[in-house]
Amino acid sequence: MSNSSFGKQCLSWCRAGSLSGLALLAAAGLPVAAGEPDYALLPLNQLRHLAVEGVPRAQLALGVALEHGEGLPRSPVEARRWYCRAAAQNVEEAWFNLGWMFANGRGVIRDDAIARYWLGRAAAGGVAQAANVLAMLEEGTSDLTGCEDTVTLPWIYQRCQSVQCRDIVHKVEQLAPNYGLDANLVVAVIDAESGFQPRALSPKRASGLMQLLPTTAQRFGVRDIWDTEENLRGGMAYLRWLLAWFRGDLEKVLAAYNAGEQRVMQYRGVPPYTETRGYVRRILRRYGHKVHPYDVAWLTLPLADPEARAKAAVSSRRDP
Predict the structure, then answer these.
(1) Domains plus CATH for the chain?
(2) Which end of the chain has a smaller Cβ tally under 10 Å, C or N?
């Protein structure tokens, strides 16, 4: 079969649901990592443990099992999450599988632009058949990857090993899409703000995971600043507002989260405070991006207190 014929036949097989996950990988000629165990043959509890610990190819194998219901209930949504985590650790097969899912709408809304992003990476990484599938797709690019709701930062596995910390990450993954936020940005902010300590309290009375000041908490409708979910929601609502105000410029957004909007506007950028500049650099390095999608409509979302809205530039200031 020619490469071009394979690409067309692959799309036909996948849309008909007749090709299993492992058969798909084999048919596509995807490489098998030398010197590693066959994770697909491990007991599922062991496979899941390794995936949670951050073993990249275990994450891939768990994604395949979940996508195709091999030994456990089929869940394309969870499969995509595990592919995203493996993809962030440069597993070429995960790039291919994500492209495949978005090209065919398997458990996701079909999106040729996202599919092209992942298949393009797979093709550049040496996955022979990725280029053939790419040829079947419409032209287009996307600022999204389809993984924004999943924490994929490789450092998270060492930084976040306790059950409590992993529960926090899971909660962020649940909530972040409701605020239009990349879960990875939220996690990077939490790491810098509180080190994942829900009871963290600063000398300036910034409290909880996202270190909300009482004025910020009131402004964004947080009734119990020590409630984990309310604290997360308040911090995410503030980040969303800042993203709209500063048009997605993360240097300004993060500086404002640390020092207040007024200071950023005063200096037309990151204020000349050692703490704030170090804070911004640290999060940008951990997150890996300098811009974030935003919607100016976020500025018009109701705040808890109309009077607080009028004082927005001052009420959230946290001077170093």
Answers:
(1) 3-134 (1.25.40.10), 156-315 (1.10.530.10)
(2) N
